[in-house]
Design a protein that fits this description.
about 140 residues; elongated; three-stranded antiparallel sheet; Arc Repressor Mutant, subunit A; 6 helices
Length: about 140
C-alpha cells in the first residue's frame, strides 16, 4: 500500500484532484469555527473589555458627553458592589479601559479631572444623569471648572 501511495504515476492525479476539491470547498465555505472555539473567543474578548457591562448598565458613550472623574468612579464602585465584582479596576487599568472605549481624560481650570465621551445615566432611561445646577455641570463652551 505505501509503495502505491508514494508512486506519483499511480496516485498523483487522484491526490491532486482531492487537494483541488478540498481547496474549492474551503474557498466556497471557509473552514468554519468549532463552537468551543467561538465560545472561548467570546469569553476572552469579554475579559479584555472589563467595562462593557458597566457601560451597558450605567453609561452612554458619545462625543457630546462628559462627566467628572469622581462622579464616574463613584458610580462604577457602586455598580461593582451591587454586581458583586470583587476586584474593580483601579489606577492605570481604569484609565486604560476608559481610553479603550474612546474616552479621553482632561483637567478643568480648577484641576478637576473629567472624562469626555462618556456620561452616567439614570435607570433605564439611557439619557444622561440629571444633576442639580452647579453640580459637576461643565460650563458652556467647553471650559471646565
Amino acid at each position: 500500500m505505501k509503495a502505491t501511495i508514494i508512486d506519483p504515476v499511480q496516485t498523483g492525479a487522484a491526490i491532486l484532484a482531492w487537494a483541488v476539491e478540498g481547496c474549492a470547498r474551503w474557498l466556497a465555505n471557509g473552514l468554519g469555527e468549532p463552537k468551543a472555539v467561538m465560545q472561548a473567543t467570546a469569553a476572552y474578548r469579554k475579559s479584555q473589555e472589563p467595562l462593557t457591562d458597566f457601560v451597558a448598565d450605567c453609561c452612554v458613550l458619545g462625543p457630546g458627553y462628559g462627566v467628572s472623574a469622581t462622579r464616574l468612579r463613584e458610580k462604577y464602585e457602586a455598580w461593582c458592589k451591587s454586581e458583586g465584582v470583587k476586584h474593580p479596576l483601579a489606577g492605570r487599568a481604569w484609565g486604560a479601559a476608559l481610553r479603550a472605549l474612546g474616552c479621553t481624560d482632561s483637567r478643568g481650570a480648577g484641576g478637576a479631572r473629567w472624562w469626555d465621551g462618556i456620561e452616567v445615566v439614570v435607570g433605564d432611561a439611557r439619557t444622561p444623569d440629571e444633576r442639580q445646577p452647579g453640580e459637576d455641570n461643565p460650563p458652556p463652551f467647553g471650559d471646565r471648572p
